[in-house]
Every structure is written in structure tokens, then in C-alpha cells.
Fold this protein.
Amino acid sequence: MDTNRLSKKIEDILNSQVTKEADAAQVYLSYGCWADSKGYGGIANYFFRHSGEERDHMMKVMQYIMERGGEVKITAIKAPPKSPKNLQECFEKTFQHEVDNTTAIYDIVNLAHDEKDWATYNFAQWFVKEQIEEEKLVMDLLDKLKIAGGPKASDESLFNLDTYLGQAPDDAPLARDASVNKPE
Ligand code: FEO
């Protein structure tokens, strides 16, 4: 008796997401190492923590495939891209990475909707919310770098930014939780 509750297409797209999350973990690991080599220990810490979060995302998708009776396929992941030239490029590439991942999550949502696979549709909603947070966290990085002076940031403001990011929260407050007394 076949107990696989996932269609072939859904199983494939979920397996591809497992690889994407593992790939993101590898990219952020490389950015962390690059930041540390430039003396930004706090920013390195930020990327190392974030790399761990991507592994958690990978684990969630992997577990979901197994929970539904599907087959997980662990494949090779690419080598990370070249090191960024500077912090601005590092944060911009991180933002683009997250936007691309959001597109991949939406592809899962769209396919689940088309197939009326409401279990996968429901599962993917966690990732829709998570991507709002992930994008916001990186937008905040770019904002903070801009306030620090962008390409003309002084050593002192970069030192402060690095110290801040070493201890920054891993979660971003979302609009849905805002109120008049607690706007963020
Ligand atoms: Fe797994 Fe950064 O999204």
C-alpha cells in the first residue's frame, strides 16, 4: 500500500527546498568567515547564528516530507559564492538571497494551492511568515549600515555596528503584533 501523501511534484519541490535551505546555511557560514577575517567579530557571530537558523529550516522541510510518507533526497550543495567586496555588498547579497528564497516558498504555496494539498499549504504558511521576518532583519542591517555612514562609515561607527550585531535579536517584530502602545 502506498502511504506517500505527497504528489511527485510536491515531493520534488520540497526536496529542492531542503537543498536551498542547506545552501543558504553554507552561504551565511562563508559570509561569517569573511566578516571575521575583516575583524568584524559581531557580524560574523550574526551570520553564524543565521546559518544555524537555515539548517533549522532545512530540518523542518525534511521532517515534513518524512511525516507525509515521502522520500527525502539529500543532494550536493554548491560552493558558496565569492567573498563580498565590503559590508554593503555583503548585506545586499544577503537581502537578495532572502528575496529569492521567498520566491521559492511562494512557488511551494502556489503549487500546493493548485493541487489542493492543504496540508502542504498549511505547512508552508510558517515559512511565509518566517520570510517576512528574514527579509526585515536584513532590511534592518542595510538601514543600520546606512545610518553608520554607508560606504563612508567611520571606523568608530563600524565598530559600534559590529558590537550591536553581535548581540542583536534573531527575531524581527512583525506588523501583525504591533499596537498603538507598542508600535514595534
Ligand atoms: Fe530559510 Fe533565510 O530563509
Observations:
- Residues 10 and 111 are 7 Å apart (CA to CA).
- DSSP finds five helices and no strands in the chain.
